[in-house]
Structure formats: structure tokens, C-alpha cells
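Review form for a predicted model. The reviewer records the input and the model, then writes brief findings.
Reviewer: anonymous (R2)
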Amino acid sequence: MDHGAPIEAACRIMILEGQLEEAQRDNAENRAAGPLTPPASTAA
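Model under review:
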């Protein structure tokens, strides 16, 4: 905010930073869970 950014922009940046941190945590958890198993084919 020292550079003249409006308060709304600063709030939006803080929200986006929080969302980024959450997405990075989710990605780390998914990687730790291992690879996904593809669903079984139902085609006969």
C-alpha cells in the first residue's frame, strides 16, 4: 500500500495470496497421496 494501491486492491491481493497458499497445500497433499488409479472401464 506504500505505492498508492487502493485498499480494495490490497484486500484482493491478500485474498488471492490466501487462495494460492491453500492450493499449494492441496497440491502437496495430493502429491503425497501418490498417483491416481484410473477408474475401471465399464465398456463391454
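Findings: The chain has a mean pLDDT of 86.
Further findings: Residues 20 and 26 are 10 Å apart (CA to CA).
Recommendation: see findings above.
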